[in-house]
Amino acid sequence: MRGWILLLFGSWFVLPAFGAEKEAEPGTAAAEASSAPPAVRAQPVPSVVETAKPALRGAMVRLSDFGADDIAYLSIPDSPPVAAVVLVPGMWGLDDRIKLCADRLARQGFVALAVDLFNGQVPPDARIAADLERSLRGESCFRVIRAGIRFVRESPRFRTDRVALMGWEVGAGFVLELLLVEKGIDAGVLFYGPLELDRGKLAKLRTPVCGIYGDRDPSIPKEELLRFTKIVEEEHKPFDLHVFPAGSSFADPRSPSFDPVSAEAAWNIAAHFLDRNLAEAGGPKKNGGWLDLFRMSEKK
Predict the structure, then answer these.
(1) Which of 183, 111, 170 is nearest to 140 (CA)?
(2) Contact 32, 10 (CB under 8 A)
(3) pLDDT, tens digit, for every residue of 123-177?
(4) pLDDT for 192-236, tens place per residue?
(5) Which homologous superfamily is 56-299 in?
(6) What's the order of all strands across the beta sheet hosting 83-88?
(7) Where are the domains of the chain?
(8) 175: which of 167, 193, 207, 274 fits an S-S bond (Cβ 3.0–4.6 Å)?
């Protein structure tokens, strides 16, 4: 369905599957989901929220052959990939959380490449993270993201036909800007980040997008979210909007607003969206021996 809006919680924010407070019994949420009106798409309550931190399965690579002298974290599936996802971190940079997200995507069957916008720096605290974020320059960030796209498309190890972008916070802002101008991107996932309220710019959107936001995020006023919703509906844009009863960066364990249940639910929504727009669009690329080729090249 193109341009549908999922409303979560309270007043206009009503998510049937999560319609109760977090302390509510699962049966209560399920009961509310079953009574949801047809216009609202309910999401299943996750039965398990990951708490243990698994070991990283990927490796660091350089993008110097593809237009940027920067590093990135590469995680690959155990079977021929169905597509690729380029991850763009937010204020905490290329930390272990983003790497673990790449690993989850690799287990889902995607080549996952998480780019680094901070030149190898991982901020130890919020003050330094904010300083690094303020130092970002759009032109430089776009060059890094485009190099990541070229890496998964042009590297002889992969050459994936279908590519999605996934971003968090400021990274989501860069992803949205690219989706409005870049051709050939097959899907985009935005975890919060700035909204584009220019109707003329949004009219150019052709790529399916999944946007995940919190209704208590002070950086995204509810009025802006309502206006954005109205524009994408009126312009019939392929934008799936999901609003959770949560605060800023609610999917990040370092955030004061971290909500593990909503975080896992949001991830499942994003994963299903990628499956629907990438994996189901065609079978795996048959690169014949691509995994062995990758491992041999990494040993050099």
Answers:
(1) 170
(2) no
(3) 999 999 999 999 999 999 999 999 999 999 998 888 788 999 999 999 999 999 9
(4) 999 999 999 999 999 999 999 999 999 999 999 999 999 999 999
(5) Alpha/Beta hydrolase fold, catalytic domain (3.40.50.1820)
(6) 5-6, 239-244, 209-214, 187-191, 163-168, 83-88, 110-115, 71-75, 59-62
(7) 56-299
(8) 167
Query: DSSP secondary structure string, the chain?
Result: --S-EE--SSTT---GGG-S-TTS-HHHHHHHHHT--TTS---PPPS----S-PPP--EEEE-GGGT---EEEEE--SS--SEEEEEE--TT-S-HHHHHHHHHHHHTTEEEEEE-SSTT---SSHHHHHHHHHH--HHHHHHHHHHHHHHHHH-TTT--S-EEEEEETHHHHHHHHHHHH-SS--EEEEES-PPP--HHHHTT--S-EEEEEETT-TTS-HHHHHHHHHHHHHTT--EEEEEES--TTTT-TTSTT--HHHHHHHHHHHHHHHHHHTGGGS-----SSHHHHHHHHHH-
Alpha-carbon distance of 222 to 9, in angstroms, equals 13
